[in-house]
Amino acid sequence: MIFEQVSINNIIAEYEQTRLTNRGLEHQRRQEIYNKFPEIDELTTSTTKSYVASILSRLEGGSHTLSQTPEETSTLNHERAKRIKQILVDNGYPEDYLEPIYTCKLCQDTGYVDGQRCSCFLDKLINKFYLQSNLNNIWEKENFANFDTGFYSKEKQPDQEFSPYDNIMSVLERSKDFVESFSEKSSHRGNILIYGEVGLGKTFLTNCIAKAVLDKGHQVLYLSANELFQCVLSPYLMNQEKSLADLYKYVYNCELLIIDDLGTELTNSFVTSNLFEIINQRNLQGKSTVISTNLGLKDLKDRYSERIMSRVIESYTVFNIYGENIRYQKRFK
Ligand SMILES: [Zn+2]
C-alpha cells in the first residue's frame, strides 16, 4: 500500500536538517558581518552584556548592580538594533540579514503551528507521495508538448459532429485554457469531466493537465479512483496510518484534484456517497476537479445516481474523446 511507505520520520528528520542548515547559515552571516563591521560586533556585544547584567541582577534579587534602569536598557538596546540595521542597509545588505533564517516562516521549520501540522508539512507529505507513486517520471513524458494528435483521424464518421482530430484539438485547447485559469486569482476555475473508451489518451491528457498546473505552482492531488476510495478514504487504513488523515483533508482542500479512471473501482454505496460529498464540497469551496472515466454519461448516471450526475453536468465542462484505440494503432503500425 502506497501510503504505508510514507514515512513521517523522514519528514521530521528533514525539518531537523533544515534547522541545522539555517543555524549554520546564520552563524556564517554573523562572522562575515562582525569581521566587516566591528561596530556591529561591539553593539551586539553591548546588547548581550546588558541582557546578562539584567538577568544577573534579577537573580541576585535587586537592581543595585545595574548602572541603568530596565527602561533605559531597553531603550538603549532598541537604539543599538536600529543602528545595526542602518549599517547593514547603508552597505547594501537587507536589514534582516542577521535575523534568524526560516525556510518556512509559518512554523519556523518545526512542521507545526499551534499543535497542528503546517501547510509545508502537508506539501512534503504530498511530495513524498508523488515520488513514491512515480508520477514524476510519467510527467517527463506525458505533458502537453508530447501529446501526439497524429493518432486521431481527420475523417469524420457519419455519426460524428467533428472528426476525432478536430475534436481532440478543441479538447486540448480548452484543457490549456483550464490550466491558464490557474494563473488568475479567480475564485472558481471550473471542473472537467473527460469520458471516452479505453485507449484514447484520457490518462495522458489528465497527466498533461496535472503537470501543467503543478508547474504553475499549484497543489495537485492525482489519484486513481481505486487509490482514492480504497486507500485515502478507507476508514480502516485511516486508523492505521495517521498521515492519511491529512491526505483525506487534502482530497477536499487541494487546489486541483484529479480522479483518474472513475468506474474501475469497486463501486458501492460508500463510494457513491463519498463521491457526492467530494464533488459537492469542492464545488462549494471553489476548488477544481478533473475526472476521467471510460463510462458513458448514461452509465455514469446508472452507476453513481442521478444526483451526482446532475451536479457534474451543471458544474463540469464535459469532454468526449473518441477515435481509434491508440494502443491498438501503436501495436499494428
Ligand atoms: Zn511550515
Short description:
The chain has 333 residues and is an alpha/beta fold.
Terminus-to-terminus distance: 37 Å
Kindly state the percentage of residues in helix.
55-70%
Number of helices: 14
For the sheet with most strands, the description reads: 5 strands, parallel
Strand order across the largest sheet: 4-5-6-3-7
- Which distinct ligands sit in these coordinates? zinc ion
Q: Give the structural class.
A: alpha/beta
Low-pLDDT regions? 1-5
Q: What is the highest CATH level, the class of the largest domain?
A: Alpha Beta
CATH architectural group of the largest domain: 3-Layer(aba) Sandwich
How many strand segments? 7
CATH topology of the largest domain: Rossmann fold
**What is the H/E order?**
HHHEEHHHEHEHHHEHEHHEH
Fourth-tier CATH superfamily name of the largest domain = P-loop containing nucleotide triphosphate hydrolases
Q: What's the alpha carbon Rg, rounded to whole Å?
A: 29 Å
Mean pLDDT: 86
Overall tally of structural domains: 2
Describe this structure as you would to a colleague.
This protein is an alpha/beta fold and 333 residues long. It has 2 domains: 2-113, no CATH class; 134-332, P-loop containing nucleotide triphosphate hydrolases (Rossmann fold). Helices cover 58% and strands 10% of the residues. The chain has 14 helices and 7 strands. It has helices at 8-36, 38-60, 70-90, 119-133, 135-141, 164-180, 202-215, 225-232, 235-240, 243-253, 269-284, 297-304, 306-315, 326-332, and strands at 112-113, 116-117, 191-195, 220-224, 256-262, 288-293, 316-320. The strands form 2 sheets. The protein has a 5-stranded parallel β-sheet, with helices on both faces. The structure holds zinc ion. Zinc ion (ZN) is lined by residues 104, 106-107, 118, 120.
